[in-house]
């Protein structure tokens, strides 16, 4: 409850009430005192330094490889049909390249997941590090 300071009866109070400000500041001080010790790490580790200034610009990035799996299980390597044993050897050759190309897998909407999983497992077994999936964006109705 605020009281007037004197001269005029019913006049608004002209001073700022600092009690709520002090309350908020004390609560913040307590919160920071509790959370500050939790921010320090107990185990000291020498983290590696990233050297982003030195990049090998002479080697251009490899174009990605697109592997398509149709609904009947036929596998295509960049739109050329390949048998499963040839797919394995081609992936093995691509895994040895520097820089290694990314493999994008496209599957028909009705393709069994088992057929796509076999392609992914084959790529990973041959040492391909970047395996991704291609999908179309769903348009809002």
Q: From the coordinates shown, what is the CATH architecture of one domain? A: 2-Layer Sandwich
| Largest sheet geometry | 5 strands, mixed
How big a fraction of the residues is strand? 5-15%
Number of helices: 3
Q: What letter string, H or E per element, gives the SSE order?
A: HEEEHEHE
CATH top-level class of one domain: Alpha Beta
Low-confidence stretches: none
Gyration radius, in Å: 32 Å
Strand order in the sheet with the most strands: 3-2-1-4-5
Shape: elongated
Class by helix and strand content? Answer: alpha/beta
Q: What is the residue-mean pLDDT, rounded to a whole number?
A: 85
Give the helix proportion (percent range). Answer: 25-40%
Task: Work out the number of β strands.
Answer: 5
Q: Termini, distance in Å? A: 57 Å
CATH topology name of one domain, in short, is Nucleotidyltransferase, domain 5
Structural write-up:
With 141 residues, the chain is an alpha/beta fold. The chain has a domain of 70 residues: 2-Layer Sandwich (Nucleotidyltransferase, domain 5). The protein contains 3 helices and 5 strands, in the order αβββαβαβ. It has a 5-stranded mixed sheet. The chain is elongated, with a radius of gyration of 32 Å. The two termini are 57 Å apart. The model has no long low-confidence stretch (mean pLDDT 85).
Quick tags:
141 residues; alpha/beta; Nucleotidyltransferase, domain 5
What is the strand and helix layout of this fold?
Layout: H1 19-39, E1 65-69, E2 75-77, E3 80-82, H2 84-95, E4 103-107, H3 113-125, E5 131-134
Parallel strand pairs: 1-4, 4-5
Antiparallel strand pairs: 1-2, 2-3
